Amino acid sequence: MILMQNESGGIRVPKRLGQQAIVLAHKLGIVDHELQVWRDNVFIYIPLANSLPKEKLVSFKEQIKECEFSHYPFTKQKKRGSSLIEFLEGKLPPHLLASLPHAMDLIGDIAIIEIPVELEQHKSLIGQAVLEANKNVRTVLAKAGAISGTYRLREFDVIVGEPKTQAVHKEYGCQFYVDVAKAYFSPRLGHEHDRVASIIKEGETVVDMFSGVGPFAIQIAKVHQNVKVYAIDINPDAVELLRKNIRLNRVQYKVQAILGDASQIVKEHLPGVADRVIMNLPEKAMEFVEAACEALKSGGGIIHFYFFTNASEPLDNVKLRFAERVEVSGRKVKKILFSGLVRETAPFEWQAALDAEII
């Protein structure tokens, strides 16, 4: 919920330097986390915390020379954690209020939160507060482990509400059957699904190598009349949901669901068919770059490559490693069309995107 907009101190940098600037600003600890980073067609604007040491600003300027310090209109956004505090004041000891989760994932009518160890004995109370603060939520799940395994799954505990892990999630005009216990899905990637779908051209053939329940593939098919998407996943439960979602969104003639290992499927059935390849497997995508290149048409195409990054690893290092893997396949990166942070996965850690033109 948007609360206000005001003029505050900030940094303006060209869009092409945006990701590098955001990572550096976080590393230096100069970002005002109460305000939103925003962008226009040319620049990215980063809000600055108050009373910063001059040497930190000098350090930023030395590393990002094309920047301007001034006052810009930043938007302050209310955090969901504030709502929980409002509902739980007087019900939890004051020293525990600061440990309340400040973010949650909303998937259909399911809310997913992470309960800190010190709040474990109060999780039912917290879950009830989530229900009261979010009237459309029927189930509150707590993360009970890390994402792991070939299928990228995690375990959940039902805190309050209906004992389920299935929901119908709506995103940019599409609907998806989701089961968070059986197939990976992140609602935080909605903007990225829309971004990629918006730059697809009519008549293109797309290979979605790690499709999951189909958010990229189906969004592409919904907004384009003449496309063909091969949506691959190794998880049989994900592919079953994908097939249901293809029917639900009425894109049967544009999206083909394929169960199997992406490298093997490309090698045996899809060599040289794609104008564009989507690689949303950030923890392992580098291992599949050669298969992605094999899927591209002989004249080349675009790869949408996703990876994890942090404040200690420059993006140029990832671009270099990606380019080296492309060259192993006998191809070459002609141009980096886009690079940017997609979502925060932990403090000072992000999922990032790289759009590369391959020849």
Report on this structure.
By secondary structure, this protein is α/β, with parallel strands linked by helices. The protein has three domains: 76 residues, Alpha-Beta Plaits, CATH 3.30.70; 85 residues, Met-10+ protein-like domains (GMP Synthetase, Chain A, domain 3, 2-Layer Sandwich); 173 residues, 3-Layer(aba) Sandwich (Rossmann fold), CATH 3.40.50. Helix content is 30%, strand content 31%. The chain has a seven-stranded mixed sheet with strand order 13-12-11-14-15-17-16, sandwiched between helices. Helix 6 packs across helix 7. The N terminus is likely disordered.
Q: Which bin fits the share of residues in helices?
A: 25-40%
- Average predicted confidence as pLDDT: 90
Percent strand equals 25-35%
Structural class of the helix and strand makeup? alpha/beta
SSE arrangement, N to C:
EHEEHEHHEEHEEEEHEHEHEHEHEHEE
Q: Which helices and strands occur, and which strands form pairs?
A:
Blueprint: E1 2-14, H1 18-28, E2 38-39, E3 43-47, H2 54-63, E4 68-77, H3 80-88, H4 94-97, E5 105-107, E6 110-113, H5 123-133, E7 139-143, E8 156-161, E9 166-171, E10 174-179, H6 190-199, E11 205-208, H7 215-223, E12 228-233, H8 236-248, E13 255-259, H9 262-269, E14 276-279, H10 289-295, E15 301-310, H11 315-328, E16 333-346, E17 349-358
Parallel strand pairs: 6-7, 11-12, 11-14, 12-13, 14-15
Antiparallel strand pairs: 1-3, 1-4, 2-3, 5-6, 7-8, 9-10, 15-17, 16-17
